[in-house]
């Protein structure tokens, strides 16, 4: 718990009595016929007032690579290491003198002046579900009672949920402040991966899920162009990328808008009905977000990415990676504060075997193309200065190449929480910069180790969330948002 002296004035007031403003707000609840369940939203608005740091980013696109990107084969290559460590790929020069990355990321290499790397992020888990929770929440510790098979309301809140809570008052619209797309992360067994939701903050603060990519338990990657199966089991993948399929946070009283809204005329019907309904019903800000998501024309355009013009589709790619990053770019343009983009379903980047052909042919091409197009778009309009772009996974990959012949035709690398590389761009990030260093084998940090707490704090700080910010639970107890300092040297 934070000492009262460290809380923003508006937060500390909640423990010293009710202000005139909060009394007026409480009275308005009865006048508007809303009800006590809306006090949480009012408390949230009050708590977010007060001084803020001068973070440049108005929005953030958090690109998550579920499964774990191999640092050796992407952004932290070890060409002088032994054969069983350095791998099959060769490094190439970037636009930044002395900085090299993988030969199969040529577009990003040409744009190194726009991004920076942290090569020393580290945590202690090599298990997928625990590591997802660690990186998606920014907490190295696991909560009491943590279960890898069952997300719980005792879990830590996700970065997306925290940012959505803290950034709401900065928005000039009623759109959801935080969105996750194009799918939830679901294991091949069907269990939902922990760390994606608001956890202890409560379901009313869950990020909004835009589920445009149907679940498939054996196919991964950027379908339909670059879809693949890790173990080549030959099961057909006939998925369609259709947006939007909205999964709204619980407790908003708008369950009727659940379900797939595949056609534009269906969207229009929803828009007309909701707009009419909103004229005769008093919606609080949380419910109004649900209405706005369906009624704003800018949101319609943002979600309808598969029908974008050829120029955009050719640049981003006609696949789930390209469509997802184009959707994210449009949503932040429409005013959403944070968009988490899952590039591939759960464990897409889990390259235990067949690693080198899958990275070379299926994963790097659509990622290199779509991420480069996103950076170009934001840079050309000047929005990159106000949009933080981050790329990370739940962990890195092991130094030694291994071969699980029972499951894979070719070798790969195992899980490795001890070090991974993270890419940052925009939002005041200094381009062409490298923070931290791994050892000669790419196994452990050798300089400036960075924890998930520092990673989360960097996102919060860049977005202007004050270091003293807190969220409040149902008993009105404050919980400090920051658990570490921002990564030094990035900005």
UniProtKB/TrEMBL annotation:
SUPFAM superfamilies, sorted: Alkaline phosphatase-like (SSF53649)
Domain of life from the UniProt record: Bacteria
One Pfam family matching this protein: DUF1501
Name by which UniProt lists this protein: DUF1501 domain-containing protein
């Amino acid at each position: 718990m934070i000492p009262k002296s460290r809380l923003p004035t508006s937060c500390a007031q909640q423990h010293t009595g009710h202000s005139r403003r909060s009394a007026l707000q409480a009275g308005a609840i009865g006048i508007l016929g809303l009800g006590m369940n809306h006090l949480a939203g009012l408390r949230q608005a009050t708590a977010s007032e007060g001084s803020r740091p001068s973070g440049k980013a108005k929005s953030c696109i958090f690109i998550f690579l579920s499964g774990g990107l191999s640092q050796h084969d992407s952004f932290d290559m070890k060409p002088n290491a032994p054969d069983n460590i350095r791998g099959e790929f060769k490094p190439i020069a970037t636009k930044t003198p002395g900085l090299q990355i993988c030969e199969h990321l040529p577009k990003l290499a040409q744009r190194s002046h726009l991004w920076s790397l942290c090569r020393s992020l580290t945590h202690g888990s090599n298990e997928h579900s625990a590591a997802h929770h660690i990186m998606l929440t920014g907490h190295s510790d696991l909560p009491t009672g943590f279960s890898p098979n069952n997300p719980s309301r005792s879990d830590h809140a996700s970065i997306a949920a925290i940012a959505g809570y803290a950034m709401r008052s900065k928005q000039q619209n009623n759109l959801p402040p935080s969105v996750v797309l194009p799918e939830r992360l679901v294991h091949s067994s069907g269990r939902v991966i922990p760390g994606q939701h608001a956890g202890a903050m409560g379901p009313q603060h869950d990020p909004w899920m835009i589920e445009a990519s149907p679940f498939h338990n054996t196919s991964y990657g950027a379908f339909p162009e670059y879809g693949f199966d890790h173990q080549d089991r030959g099961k057909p993948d006939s998925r369609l990328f259709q947006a939007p399929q909205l999964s709204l946070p619980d407790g908003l009283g708008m369950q009727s808008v659940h379900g797939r809204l595949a056609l534009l005329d269906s969207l229009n019907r929803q828009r007309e009905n909701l707009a009419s309904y909103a004229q005769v019903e008093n919606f609080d800000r949380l419910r109004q977000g649900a209405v706005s998501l369906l009624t704003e024309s800018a949101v319609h355009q943002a979600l309808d990415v598969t029908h974008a013009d050829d120029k955009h589709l050719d640049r981003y790619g006609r696949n789930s990676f390209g469509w997802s990053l184009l959707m994210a770019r449009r949503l932040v343009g429409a005013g959403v504060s944070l968009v988490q983009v899952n590039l591939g379903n759960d464990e897409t980047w889990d390259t235990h075997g067949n690693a080198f052909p899958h990275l070379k042919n299926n994963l790097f091409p659509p990622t290199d193309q779509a991420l480069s197009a996103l950076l170009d778009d934001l840079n050309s309009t000047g929005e990159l200065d106000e949009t933080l772009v981050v790329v990370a996974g739940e962990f890195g990959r092991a130094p030694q190449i291994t071969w699980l012949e029972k499951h894979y035709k070719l070798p790969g690398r195992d899980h490795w929480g001890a070090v991974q590389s993270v890419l940052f761009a925009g939002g005041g990030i200094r381009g062409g910069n490298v923070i931290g260093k791994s050892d000669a084998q790419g196994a452990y940090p050798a300089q400036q180790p960075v924890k998930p707490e520092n990673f989360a704090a960097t996102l919060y700080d860049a977005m202007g969330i004050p270091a003293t910010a807190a969220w409040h639970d149902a008993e009105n107890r404050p919980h400090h948002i920051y658990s570490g300092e921002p990564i030094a040297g990035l900005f």
